[in-house]
Write a structure and sequence with these properties.
The protein is α+β, with helices and mostly antiparallel strands and 308 residues long. Helices cover 60% and strands 16% of the residues. Helix 4 packs parallel to helix 6, helix 5 packs antiparallel against helix 6 and helix 6 runs antiparallel to helix 7. It is a multi-pass membrane protein.
Length: 308
């Protein structure tokens, strides 16, 4: 999907390209790919780098074109991975500025509406990149709130019954948090590099830099807190499962020992050796009585030692 926006008291959509407008392309088609490579003549290597789902945030310059890749969060349709991060590339040169992502995101449309409400004026391409970093950090925090709700739901389910499904849900959430933490750290490194560019350092809005730094830091701290909580929760439930298994094994062993007592007595009585009871008509009853007494004593002893 291709859209053109001009900066006039916020971002306003326009029907075609004009100099210094912003071109937003999401999930590009072959036609849009040709437009980027043939009409705008952006480097094909930049396009291919953004297409790589695992591409790391960085800055690269080639033939006057500047590529800045950041990682942004999206809500996934994959049940096993409800949230993930993807590369979003900003490519600019002179009066051309393009953002490319190969997935649908909520960030671009949300930022467009936000810019209209706040009448935001984007000064230059690097100002635009910083505002995108700020917007992505806000969306990380929004998705982290949803992740926290999933953690609470899984915790409530685990309190009722420990099943594989609930533990797998926690593992899926943990995987999302790993993606978030890794991407946020990489975005922070990218932000520090942009912040310290000597050629543009004097032109940055100090308030904007502070906002980006605060939101990035808050998103990283929140993701780490949720990850630590989740890790502690999973460790606790793993201990509970292990303890329950030990209790079950202890009870089964105790029952086996109790059942072994009458079996041992019956085995000794049934051996082909004289025992004094083979001629007695009360022999079987004596053996039953001894078995009951010894088994009862064994149960009493185990209960006293809390083995049952």
């Amino acid at each position: 999907m291709k859209a053109f926006y001009t900066n006039d008291n916020g971002l306003l959509e326009i029907p075609k390209w004009t100099p210094n407008c912003w071109i937003s392309i999401e999930d590009p088609s072959e036609t849009e790919k040709k437009y980027l490579l043939e009409e705008l003549q952006i480097p094909e290597a930049f396009y291919n780098d953004i297409e790589d789902i695992d591409e790391r945030p960085r800055i690269e310059i080639e033939d006057g074109w500047t590529l800045i890749i950041m990682r942004v969060p999206i809500k996934s349709n994959d049940i096993k991975l409800p949230f993930q991060t993807i590369p979003l590339g900003v490519i600019f040169k002179n009066d051309v500025c393009v953002t490319i992502t190969f997935y649908k995101t909520e960030i671009i449309y949300d930022f467009m509406l936000y810019s209209r409400r706040k009448n935001i004026q984007v000064k230059d391409n690097f100002d635009w990149v910083l505002r995108l970093l700020l917007s992505s950090s806000v969306w990380y925090l929004k998705y982290l709130k949803q992740v926290n709700q999933k953690i609470k739901l899984a915790e409530d389910n685990l309190e009722k019954s420990i099943k594989n499904e609930e533990l797998q849900a926690l593992l899926q959430i943990e995987k999302c948090l790993v993606f978030f933490i890794t991407s946020l750290k990489a975005n922070d490194v990218l932000f520090q590099r942009i912040k310290n560019l000597k050629a543009y350092k004097a032109n940055y809005d100090s308030d904007l830099l502070e906002d980006v730094e605060i939101e990035l830091s808050q998103a990283q701290d929140t993701a780490n807190i949720y990850s630590n909580i989740l890790t502690g929760m999973m460790d606790a439930y793993a201990s509970v499962i292990s303890n329950n298994m030990n209790n079950i094994m202890k009870q089964m062993t105790s029952i086996s020992i109790i059942l072994m007592i009458p079996t041992l007595i019956a085995s000794l009585y049934g051996m082909n050796v004289p025992n004094g009871l083979e001629e007695s008509k009360y022999g079987i009853w004596i053996l039953l009585l001894v078995s009951v007494i010894l088994s009862t004593f064994g149960v009493f002893l185990f209960k006293r030692r809390r083995w049952f």
